[in-house]
Design a protein that fits this description.
The chain folds into 3 domains: 111 residues, no CATH class; 258 residues; 87 residues, Immunoglobulin-like. The relative contact order is 0.12. With 476 residues, it is of the alpha+beta class. Helix 1 packs across helix 3, helix 3 packs parallel to helix 5 and helix 4 packs antiparallel against helix 5. The protein has a 6-stranded mixed sheet with strand order 2-14-7-1-6-5, sandwiched between helices. It starts with 8 loop residues before the first helix and ends in a 6-residue tail after the last strand. The longest helix is centred in the N-terminal third of the chain and has 32 residues. It is globular and about 75 Å long. The protein contains 11 helices and 21 strands. Strand 15 and strand 16 form a beta hairpin.
């Protein structure tokens, strides 16, 4: 954006305008601002200023259409701007700019959506337990906790740049927008789940037995009993039947790091991209990425709203279950899993807890309008179909392989988790020679006899092919 340490006029005007809105007039030294990383942040603040000029209004459908077209760019700009700054003074300047224009824009949009929903009904509705959710042959349902709309768009771009075909489908999260409610709602076995009348933690249960889904065991058991393969950790399966996979806990990092999630989001998405590529490599025909909810993120904290703890059975950042007979002015909404049970949601983008920079559970476009992705092999994607290991020979801790296929630009690695570059166990990866061979050496002799995976990588580090092996030789 900046050249010769001088900011373009638009960027200077943007930050000055944002700063005036905050009610202060700071004397910026523009030549200093022209130096990275603050100049890079200003580029995204300019996008934020332009996007938030347009309010979010209309029916729920119109709100969704506007948000899908351009509104999500404001959320994306906030994350990108925060990811660029390190020094406390730079973080403060960017945070002031964000709070000046983004916070009131998001607040107005959330209040309008809440008003619209109060007049009719929430588009996410309540569970329809009468309709099973069949899986297509060769489909892997890929769950990501907290894949907000803008993060899903970023992931889609990463996958498309690797040659995969990506289809996007906007969808409304279940209310309240928390993992306990939303994860089960996007599972292929939601027709076998119900909500009890006395569930204060928004956790549904197995319809047939009443066993809580808390902890995940019974959800996975429902899936397995219904014929779904559970792919744990680095397991990729064989591409046959249907599978359920979980990867990339964005929500965990958000609660732990607050606004600093912005600095780690790309790394989390890269891990997800690698996992998806590995699954397509072994033969899954399509990966359907689903999520439970989005989130709100504002540096410096969301506005605080009071809800006395004496009234609540459970109180989270943006939602609360009320005690029987409790009276409150807070808006009440029906639970997705049991419309007879209602819960309170915080107005606008406010929070029942003080100082929360990252929160979800409420009703806003950022929390509730998510993006389902379907990924398939594209014409330009690297594919395992044309790449096979024809020979694997271990001599001690040295592994030599031969590959049948077009080997130009590929390299060999040995990993304990095929989609995780940090799990490499070799001294260094090695490029394949023109004849399709390469040798690598495992650096830790204590790993001899351990199961591992041979992986072929393209020039961008994308996983092209893989094969099970045992370090030092033997049966995989």
């Amino acid at each position: 954006m900046a050249r010769d340490n001088v900011l373009p006029h638009e960027a200077r005007s943007t930050l000055l305008h944002l700063d005036k809105q905050h009610g202060e007039r700071r004397q910026w030294v523009w030549t200093e601002l022209g130096e990275a990383p603050l100049a890079q942040a200003l580029e995204h603040l300019a996008v934020l200023a332009e996007t938030t000029r347009h309010g979010l209004a209309g029916t729920a459908e119109e709100l969704a259409a506007t948000y899908c077209h351009q509104g999500w760019r404001a959320d994306d700009a906030v994350i990108r701007a925060l990811s660029r700054v390190e020094k406390p003074a730079d973080v403060e300047a960017v945070s002031i700019a964000i709070r000046s224009v983004y916070l009131p824009w998001a607040e107005a949009g959330a209040r309008h959506l809440q008003k619209v929903v109060e007049g009719v009904s929430y588009p996410g509705g309540i569970v329809d337990a009468s309709t099973p959710v069949p899986g297509q042959a060769g489909e892997c349902v890929f769950f990501v906790d907290g894949l907000r709309f803008d993060a899903a768009r970023r992931l889609a771009n990463m996958l498309e740049s690797n040659g995969f075909e990506v289809t996007e489908w906007p969808t409304w999260a279940a209310l309240p927008s928390v993992t306990a409610t939303g994860k089960a709602a996007v599972s292929p076995v939601k027709d076998k789940i119900r909500g009890e009348d006395d569930s204060a933690d928004f956790e549904p249960c197995v319809a047939a037995t009443g066993q809580s889904l808390k902890g995940g065991y019974h959800l996975k058991k429902l899936l397995a009993d219904d014929g779904w393969t559970i792919l744990e950790r680095a397991d990729t399966g064989d591409g046959q039947g249907n599978a359920w996979c979980e990867c990339g806990n964005i929500d965990h990092d958000g609660h732990d790091r607050g606004w600093k999630l912005a600095k780690h989001l790309d790394g989390l998405l890269e891990e997800i991209r690698e996992r998806i590529a590995a699954l397509l490599t072994v033969g899954w025909t399509r990966i359907r990425v689903v999520t439970d909810h989005g989130w709100l993120l504002v540096p410096g904290g969301l506005p605080k709203i009071d809800l006395p703890s004496a009234l609540t059975a459970t109180r989270w950042g943006r939602c609360a279950a009320l005690k029987p007979g409790a009276a409150t002015d807070a808006r009440l909404y029906p639970w997705f899993w049991n419309p007879h049970q209602q819960f309170a949601l915080a107005d606008g983008i406010s929070c029942f807890r003080k100082g929360e920079e990252y929160a979800h559970g409420g009703l806003s476009l950022q929390e509730c309008l998510t993006l389902e992705l379907t990924i398939t092999q594209g014409a330009g994607a690297s594919s395992a179909v044309t790449m096979t290991f024809t020979d694997v020979v271990w001599k001690g801790l040295r592994c030599t392989v031969a590959v049948d296929g077009h080997a130009a630009g590929l390299s060999l690695d040995v990993r304990t988790q095929p989609g995780n570059a940090s799990s490499s166990v070799v001294v260094s990866t090695k490029p394949l020679k023109k004849n399709g061979t390469a040798s690598v050496v495992v650096e830790n002799e204590d790993l001899e006899g351990r199961a591992a995976t041979l992986v072929l990588l393209d020039a961008q580090g994308g996983l092209v092919a893989q094969a099970a092996t045992v370090i030092g030789g033997g049966d995989a």
